[in-house]
Each structure stands twice: as C-alpha cells, then as structure tokens.
TrEMBL record:
One Gene Ontology term of the molecular function aspect: transmembrane transporter activity
InterPro entries (UniProt xref): ABC_BtuC-like, ABC_transptr_permease_BtuC
Entry similarity comment: Belongs to the binding-protein-dependent transport system permease family. FecCD subfamily.
Protein name: ABC-type Fe3+-siderophore transport system, permease component
The organism of origin for this protein: Saccharomonospora xinjiangensis XJ-54
Single GO BP term: siderophore-iron import into cell
Membrane topology label: Multi-pass membrane protein
GO cellular component annotations of the record: plasma membrane
Alphabetical keyword list: Cell membrane, Membrane, Transmembrane, Transmembrane helix, Transport
Amino acid sequence: MPSVTKYGTNPTPIDELGQRALRRRGRFWIGGLSLALAATVVLAVCVGAVGLPPSAVVRVIGHHLAGTPAEPSWPLSQDAIVWRVRLPRVLLGAAVGAALAVCGVALQAMVRNLLADPYLLGITSGASTGAAAAILFGFGAGLGEHALPASAFLGALAASAAVFVIARAAGRITSLRLLMAGVAVGYALYATTGFLIFASDSAEGSRSVLFWLLGSLGLARWGVPLTSVLVIVCGTVAALTLWSRHLDALAIGDETAHTLGVSPTRLRVRLLCLVSLCVGAVVAASGGIGFVGLVIPHLARRLVGAAHHRAVPVAALTGAVFLVWADVLARVLLLPRELPIGIITAIVGAPFLLVLVKRFHTTA
C-alpha cells in the first residue's frame, strides 16, 4: 500500500509514470506558449492601420531597450507608432489576459464552481460603477487623466470589501456564501451603473460608459498605470503558483483541506484580497472584459491537467496570447473604427459556454 503523506499518498510506479508525462507536458506547453507570446507581441505590433514589417518592430524595440543615444535611421513616425502607441497596448493586453485567466483559475478553486470567473464576486461591476461616476459626473476630477482608472479601481476594491463583509456576517466564509454575496453585490452595482447612465444628461458620456463597459485597451500608455498593472499581474501569478498545493486542496473540498493542514477560511480571505487587487487594477485599465476568466482556465486544465502548479502559468500565458489577438481583431475588423474588445471575447466565449453546459449535461 502506498504511504500517506502531507498531500495524499506516495505514488505507485504507474502513478509516477503518469506524473512524469504530465510534467513533460507542462514544460512543453509553458515553453511553447512563452515563445508564442514573444512572437505574438512582435506580430501584434506590426498589425494596424499602418502595417509594419517585423524587422522594423524588432529594431525599434531593441533601440529603446538598449537605450542607444544615437538618432534612429528609420522614420520618427514609425518609431512613435511602435513605441508610444502599439507596444504599450500590446503589453497591457497581455497583462490583462494573464490576470483575468489566473484569477479565473483561483476563483474556480475558491468557490469550487467551474463556471466561476472574475465577474462572480462583483469586482467588475464595482469597477464599472466607479468608472461611470468618473465619466458622467466627474468623480475624482482632481486626479486629471488618472481619474477614470483610479475611480474604477476604488469601485472594484469597495465591491470586494462588500462581498467579504456580507459573507463574513453570515458566519464562517464558505464557497456558497462567497458565491451568493458576489452575485448579490454584482447585481446591485450593475443596477447602480444603469441608474447613473440614465441620470446623466450627457449622451456622449453615456456612450463612453457603454464602450468602456465592453472593454478597451485604448488607454494604454507608458507610465505608472501600465507599470503598476504589470507588477501586480506578475506578483499575482507568482503568488498563485506558490499557493498551488493549497489551491489543489481547496478545490477538492474543505474537509480535505483541513486534513492536509490548510485553513479554507484563511486561504479564501487571502485569495479574495489578491484577486480583488489584481482584477481591480486590470479592469481599471481596460474596462470590463468578459469570458477570459471562464474560458482560459478550462483550456489550461485540458492542456496540462488540474494541478495548479502547471495550470496557473499555462493559463497566464494562454490568456495573454488570447487577449492580444482579440485586441488585434477589435482594432482591424472595422477600420478606422475600433470595436470594444469584450465583443470579440464574447463571440469566442459564448459558444464555449454552450459546449461546457452540454458536457455537464451528458456527465450529470
């Protein structure tokens, strides 16, 4: 008989062969997706109203990263398109996609619901309410160009705090209580956003709010906001990877987690704070983008299995690649106009959700 360990049982030889195969698959997909992300960044910068060759993009990026003081030999307009406009947008898209994907992985483990995503806890609804207040009524006008992201971020944090307080007031924090509190807060804030839109006399402001609610990476610029998002996303991916065994235990059930020495309540509080910070930051920068946190975690588990030490990095890389290309489509489909990126992700996500429902129906 295999002996009991802290995280279960020692594997039998057959189990060990299976684990080795999964480890190889994990290394393969992490390496392959890392290369795909690097290629995606370059190719996505090439695509737009003004097409650019990959060699020109690499030259411009290399010139700025190397800090070469000499004047570039290529046109200044080309340099501005690559460095000031498209590269920040592509990097923001990669960060947002990775963040929404890994937060979806964490939420699905936290509430033990495979249909969970960052919309579940009302965080996106809170950010939307804050953004609507900033656009329609000038909330945080003293912050200048940072008023919109700051208001959205504060709204997201307020929503997560409300979810935590409601779930905690009912007693011990459990998956069901978090789920119900998140749905209740989300609907209340969604109604608040709708009220703000109808209460405003600005037709242009209402149109801006509706566009932002569907998501856009058009606000991407070099500076503190982009740097903060990149740092928060990298920290979240690292933290969730370090907590992978705890996530494995929580996904199985509270009793199993207790048996393995993991406090479900304490872990859920940590996850809620981390996910709220991460989702609040990316939603403040990009608006509400749906389905990424639902679709990508399932794809990651299909590729490398359910173990979170593999699923988290694979989900991050897959989400980054997916959202960058979704943004490319949003930019070029209706040139010179730009589609909200949420429309593209919904076109992909809705059929996936139907497949998921059919799968659950056949296995039930």
